[in-house]
Amino acid sequence: MSAPAIKIRITVNGTVHVTDASPTMRLLDFLRNELGLTGAKEGCGGGECGACTVLVDGAPICSCLMVLGSAAERQVTTVEGLGDGAGGLDPVQQAFVEEGAVQCGYCTPGLVMSARALVDSDKELTDEVVRTALAGNICRCTGYKKVVDAVRKVGAAAPDAQATSDHSKEQP
Ligand code: FES
Ligand code: FES
What is the pLDDT of residue 56? Predict the structure, then answer.
């Protein structure tokens, strides 16, 4: 049974929402059903697949596991909040397109959000670092090589990217 509604203030993609809602509503349900932001997907519903990944204060979280009350007064970014606001893609999204890193696309919003957080972390985007950061995002269609290539491409294009690249062994 959900807790009684209370007033909750939450910022989603830069817009402040003050809503009367149950604090035990899942953040995923609030985003999809109350705000109509359907980019975050429900896969497992239990923190296993990453399809529901959004950023909360810049960190990737499974929105199926976070309740709305825990997201109150925080900044939430969904895949709809990426890009330049005028239809232009975020560099991570653009790299996914260019590398052909999408098949059915169900996992893609979650992967993009995890990748966005990784790129923002300013870590060197070696093969191993990217694979570790995306380990919580499961794709049922294929392997992960094109996804990893896409994320590393964003790192290579960053202004302060190191000229050298690692030579870690590629996996299928
Ligand atoms: S739906 Fe949230 S982790 Fe799978
Ligand atoms: S592209 Fe289909 S689940 Fe990943």
Answer: 98
Which residue's alpha carbon is nearest to atom 3 within ligand 1?
47
11 lies in the same domain as 76: yes
CATH of the domain at 76: 3.10.20.30
Residue span of the structural domain in which 59 resides? 6-81
Is there a single domain that holds both residue 95 and residue 70? no
- Ligand 2 atom closest to Cα of residue 140: 3
Residue 168 lies in a domain: no
Mean pLDDT per 10-residue section of the chain, whose length is 172 residues: 93 97 98 98 98 98 98 98 92 97 97 98 95 97 93 83 44 41
In this prediction, residue 168 carries a pLDDT of: 40
> Hey, what amino acid is at 155?
G
Q: Which atom of ligand 1 is nearest to the CA of 64?
A: 2
Contact criterion met (CB below 8 Å) for 68 and 22: yes
Q: How far is CA 171 from CA 7, 92, 144, 146, 164, in A?
A: 48, 21, 9, 11, 20
pLDDT at position 162 is: 46
Contact 8, 25 (CB under 8 A): no
